[in-house]
Amino acid sequence: MLRVALRPRFLGMLALMIVATLVCGLLATWQWDRAHQVITDQAAEPAQLGDLRGVLAVGDPVTNEIAGEIVTVTGSFVPGEQVIVPGRNIGGTPAVLVISSLLVDQGDGTRARLPVARGWLPAAEVTDADGRITPALVPAAPQGEIEISGQLEASEAASGGVDGGVAPEIATPMLVNEWGSPMYSGYVSLAEPSGTLRTLPEAESDFSRGLNWQNIGYSFQWVAFGGFFLFLWWRSVRATHLDEVADRREAMQKLLGEDDSLPTRSPAVVTTTAPPSDKDV
Question: Is 248 a member of any domain?
Fold first, then answer.
């Protein structure tokens, strides 16, 4: 099989496969470094990015590079535009999150809504006598112009709609249907809640939770692709070698079969004439 592998055609194919494998290795390294960079960024203290309007435009997605970082923004809460998100567990306590709508002035004179996670409350504090979560028991947002500071987070995935001021997730696609547009695609989690609200732990969007494993998975996939290219070359060499061995065997069997079919000559019978005896004379 070595003679087959050293043929110019297969040597050229091997060179191409090695180049493809090296490219896969570089891509795998890049994905691995990116995954570890994300882990490093998440382990570091949140960066101060400044005014939200200089960080994120209305409608733009909250990318992993800015998710979890600190932003500031000035605006005014809209009376009546508030929802609560039950079903959370914070430090072992059943909790509800309080989300309010903040109007933010834009540079072109328009105003856009920004969902703000103002904090959380134990579910028992917003549950009525019948055991139902009641949004009316949640403190209203402060009025007037206010400057807030908090972590910028990506929207959670929407799986339902708002029902009576109760939402299943902090999802801007769902909130825009409830409050109107234009609206920022992410939300801000306040660093210092007001009143009786408690500080939310660091939020984790589906995007930031899944990115590390996604990049690590991609790196393993590229390694597998590189190994597949080399396996494909070996498989081609082996298949060619086996085909040639089979052809030689078939030719040999055919040759031996032709030799067996040749007619055989029987040994010549030699007859001798005996000299006449005395009786014949």
Answer: yes
